Amino acid sequence: MLCAAALAAPLGAPAAGATAKGTGKVNVLYAGSLTTVMTEKVGPAFHRATGYSLSGFSGGSDALASQIKGGIEQGDVFISASPSVNRTLEGRANGNWVLWYAPFASSPLEIGYDPHSRFARALRTKPWYRVVAMPGIEVGRTDPTFDPKGVLTVDALKKAARRYHEPALAEMTASTANVFPEESLLGRLQAGQLDAGFFYSVEASAAGIPAVSLGPGFSYDATYTITLLQRAPDERAAVAFVSFLLSKRGSSILTHAGLHMTTIRVAGKGSTIPKALRSRLH
User: Fold this and answer.
1) What is the CA radius of gyration of the chain?
2) The model's pTM
3) 100 is a domain residue
4) 59, 101, 194, 205: which could form a disulfide with 86 (CB 3.0–4.6 Å)?
5) Cβ contact 227:86 at 8 Å
């Protein structure tokens, strides 16, 4: 369970309740589905609480992992939308970038839609798998090669195609016409370029777009994990960020943004977790 302790100070700083704060930026590489939450909610609150600023950028979790492994991007903290992504950064063969990681929240896959779309009423009143198969509808998704959400989307479409005898859904998974990077999919929907798209509920909630559930039998969820990357440029700032995000205040922000906070169970080498974080990760 998450600890109810007060916000932790950065490494080496006075205990919680003291006024001393850190300076500088923490570089966080995070799943694109958290863009709005991180930039508009978490970042400002983290700065007020600790003095540190949130930097970094978002993208498909697999794509970010590849950039980390390839030395293209260097970060302090990595937040993935799937536990399996972390394993691609573990071990000597993968650069030993990740020694441990901790799942901390989840969010179900949904279909978000443009309320001004000519298909909006149908999405509100008819089964999603019938509407998505209608001629002329533009439905966006992410690339399963670079994003765990893309993998879940393809699986959901194929399952619905089999269960409801909708071959058009299976055909969608073979086409790349409406496949977009995770960080731009929402913007395309908001700009009216798409009628609908597959999003996690946290994305739809944070952006204020209507969404419909995939319904019984289609339980597809993001499982968000967090870790400190090895060779982090600023470990003090990284520890401060993870401590804040998993604190009572941070958890409240994430919950109000539409995330479901889960019991933390550390995977990997828990003995390598900095002492200042161990009270958060049990």
Assistant:
1) 20
2) 0.85
3) yes
4) 101
5) yes
